[in-house]
Amino acid sequence: MFAQLAFRCRCTLWLSAIGILLLLGGCAEEPSTLERVQAEGVLRVITRNSPATYFQDRNGETGFEYELVKRFADDWGLELQIETADNLDELFASLNRPNGPVLAAAGLVASDGRKQVARFSAPYLQVEPQVIYRDGQRRPTRPEDLIGKRILVLKGSSHAEQLKALKMQLPDLAYEESSAVEVVDLLRMVDEGQIDLTLVDSNELAMNQVYFPNVRVAFDFGDSQNLAWAVAPGEDTSLLDEINTFINRAHENGSLQRLKKRYYGHVDMLGYVGAYTFAKHLQQRLPRYEKDFRLAGQKQGIDWRLLAAMGYQESLWQPTATSKTGVRGLMMLTLRTAQAMGVSDRLDPKQSIAGGAKYIAQVKSQLPDSIQEPDRTWFALAAYNVGGGHLEDARKLTKAEGLDPNKWLDVQKILPRLSQKQWYSKTRYGYARGGEPVHFVRNIRRYYDILTWVTQPQLEGSQVTVNNLHVPGVNKVPQQDDMPPL
Questions:
Q1: Taking the model in full, what pTM does it have?
Q2: Using alpha carbons only, how large is the chain's radius of gyration in Å?
Q3: Of 122, 221, 110, 202, nearest to 157 (Cα)?
Q4: Which residue of 105, 126, 133, 450 sits 20 to 30 Å from the alpha carbon of 139, by its own alpha carbon?
């Protein structure tokens, strides 16, 4: 009996101990979001595949949001893992997904509606929502002028929220939302007259307007708004607190302002600078570097005049040229490309020309054997500009359209589609400024043609007038009809 009583007492003690342990275990705090991220060593971020946020070009991954969030990850010694959402609704849903991305960096306006599904950081950029119309059409000047117009905006955007609120005041207002487009698509549709109006933020317009000559700002639609990063809702502010500290520090040390200026302060535009300027530079600049172009061309088996045409397109034959994206020198090499080509000083014109020649030769050698000359040269130039991955995406889209993926004439028609969501969403490498390599190749071909004409041995000693400027060494400039097709 005493033994049974003792056994019961021991069982009671054991059960009490187990209960206390379970209670203590239940009270143990789970790691915070920041602690989990640090333990994993990876910062998972979701964004949009667009020129103002994240995309890939010949320099690799880039975009305003990408560069800013990459700096945050680097500050913490974390690997950055990027995920792109097909639309804004999917982006916010992903923030609430178990083991999903912990941060959304996608040019998001911290609107009242969105604050119900996410928590927002301190602002890093102030933008103005703007009504966009097509030049030549009657300019809207007030909200009432939107009635009766074909209006399309991004589904789930802050602009859709604004229009929904306006419709409460103006019941006759009609508009559509779409998740199948991006801002670039909306601007293109206005530019081409497919829709009457759209709403975009001022920063995205500044980045893209140069590509759409017919696009104009009608008026600012309401007050300025703040762009911010978003995290999942809840009481855990560990990650958000560090984000705010980072953004405030970026404001104070000027790094954020420099990034803004780089992406939104000005926009480069590819284009032919005119026969007059080109002829002047033929006289004043090319003679300094012609020998280097000839030597590099001979070494790599490339016509030196093609290299010279590339150098003019890239820098106007200026050895100290520097772009907003950090490419430098006469051939505008990235640091990574320069190092791979053995260039120690990108501002040394001899090294830059040699490096550019070696790189274009390498790019050309990596093209599929099915691409033959002269198309092979034009494809190599396009890959040099936009990257081999994007070019391959365009070739696949070309083939799907029943066209020849080995002919530049066909592929150049498809490349601009890489900036349209309905097309780039089907590709491996996603968004690209597909129109740029088309302009890049067209311009180089034009410069190359002129260089070929002015360096014909039988023409030496004569001259011709181009826009009232005399160019030595030429006795005839072909008329437009004589020029090879671009």
A1: 0.72
A2: 29
A3: 110
A4: 126
